Amino acid sequence: MVSYIVKRLLSLIPVLVGISLITFLILRLTPGDPAEAYLRLSQIPPTEAAVAAVRAELGLDRPLPVQYGEWLVKALTLDFGRSYATHRPVWDEMMLLVPATAQLAGVSLLITLLISIPMGIFSALYKDGWFDNFCRLLAFTSASTPNFWLGFLLMYFFSLKLDLLPTLGRGSWEHFILPAVTLSFAYIATYIRLLRTSMLENLDQQFVLYARARGLKESWVIGRHVLKNAMLPVVTALGMSIGHLLSGSVIVESVFAWPGIGRFCVSAILNRDYPVVQCFVLMMSFIFVIANLLVDIAYAWLDPRIRLKEES
């Protein structure tokens, strides 16, 4: 297992290099001059002389391979340059904003698991009942509801009409409720349907029949045998959700003015802040790959056949 983890970590290198190269080229091919954006953010008239001086200062007048090589060498030491907007090191800016995004993603994930796992279990155990039909309706509603629309809707009712929860910003635990519910709503319905389908497949397996024939309690059969095997696809979705919750919080953070890296990245894209966008994409890519590695490790724990195959 250790050798497998080491190989997966080494495979991160070409993946991250490829992603950084694609991001670098896409940003350079988009219309507009980042030097002019830099001058506008600094409240300096973008004259030809000023634009030429800024391009030389930022290294934008050099060939693209040279620009990418210099950026990649510095990125290995976590030096992603300075933000065009704040003129501060990008990595320092990210580290100040990561805790807010991580807290929001963590609360959203906790809400998702606490609601979806019990509902998915009962939906499978009471198939075609009223509760199962309610879960189907919830899944359909979730799939057709945009995050930003749900955020504004919750804000309108609970903040403006009922005056129960704060609207914007980050402070007390009450500030987490609306953005966390908005972010987790789509995942709740997805996990419910995924767990329900997986449990129904496992309930029809022979090992469940044999467990019942041995006289085991139904709660033991469901919890020890069925649920453990049914959690495998949920674990896969969970690994992908970690990255999506961190990167997908861009819209939710913008709606609720949450001071996280998602909102910071949106403003960087609008301002053509190359160093910030490149750092954000590389950071999210790293999180996605690490999350997939953790999923594979969890698979080996849930299903010993996978671990034995790797050891052989």
UniProtKB/TrEMBL annotation:
InterPro entries listed in its UniProt record: BPD_transp_1_N, CntB, MetI-like, MetI-like_sf, Nickel_NikB, Opp2B
- Compartments where found: Cell membrane
Transmembrane ranges, per UniProt, are 9-29, 104-125, 137-156, 176-195, 230-252, 280-302
Q: Name one Pfam family in it.
A: BPD_transp_1
User: What protein family does this chain belong to?
Assistant: Belongs to the binding-protein-dependent transport system permease family. OppBC subfamily.
Assembly and interactions?
The complex is composed of two ATP-binding proteins (NikD and NikE), two transmembrane proteins (NikB and NikC) and a solute-binding protein (NikA).
Protein name per the record: Nickel import system permease protein NikB
Q: Organism classification, top ranks? A: Bacteria, Bacillati, Bacillota, Negativicutes, Selenomonadales
